[in-house]
Amino acid sequence: MAEPPARQPADIADQSLGSLVSLAVRDLMQLVRCEFDLAKIEIKGDLRRVGIGAALLVIAAFVGCLVLMVLAFAFAYGLNAAGIWLWAAFLIVAGTCVLLAALAALIAFTKVRKLTGLRQTRHTVQDDIALIRRDGSAVVAPSGGAG
């Protein structure tokens, strides 16, 4: 990143209004480019994590379906051997499978909620806007706070 300009007040007084506006526009454009670059980096990281998580979830779901099928038959015939009618045993197994599916969906939902959602970009954009507005709270408040 370019080093911050170190200007003396005398230099500013010698420059025309047009050159000062041009300098401010250039600095704002550079700031916007840096914010876009930061957003791209964060989005790539999030997409990579989502892709890996989705692929692993598909593999686990396939293997889980195979194992669940075998266990369901074993469970149903085990209930039948314990004295429960075969049709009732298969209904009990179906209810158990529905409960397991609901638990898996709940776990997947909690994992997806942990995405960063461009947290660092939001903080730096808010700091930049506050700095542009010359808001004194941007200097006082740390950007790494909760939020």
List keywords for this structure.
rod-shaped, mainly alpha, 147 residues
The helix count comes to: 5
User: Measured on Cα atoms, how large is the radius of gyration?
Assistant: 29 Å
Query: Structural class, judged by helices and strands?
Result: mainly alpha
Q: Could you give the distance between the termini? A: 27 Å
Largest sheet features:
none
* Sequence stretches where pLDDT stays below 50 over 5 or more residues: none
How does the overall form come out from the CA principal axes? rod-shaped
Mean pLDDT, all residues? 83
Please provide the ordered H/E string of secondary-structure elements.
Answer: HHHHH
Number of beta-strand segments: 0
Helix fraction by DSSP (H/I, runs of at least 4): over 70%
| Beta-strand content estimate | under 5%
Set down the secondary structure blueprint:
Blueprint: H1 9-14, H2 17-81, H3 86-112, H4 119-132, H5 137-140
Helix pairs in contact: 2-3, 2-4
Architecture overview:
By secondary structure, this protein is mainly alpha-helical. The protein has a domain at 15-116. It contains 5 helices and no strands. The longest helix has 65 residues, at 17-81. The radius of gyration is 29 Å and the shape is rod-shaped. The two termini are 27 Å apart. The model has no long low-confidence stretch (mean pLDDT 83).
Task: Please sum up the structure shown.
By secondary structure, this protein is mainly α. The protein has helices at 9-14, 17-81, 86-112, 119-132, 137-140.
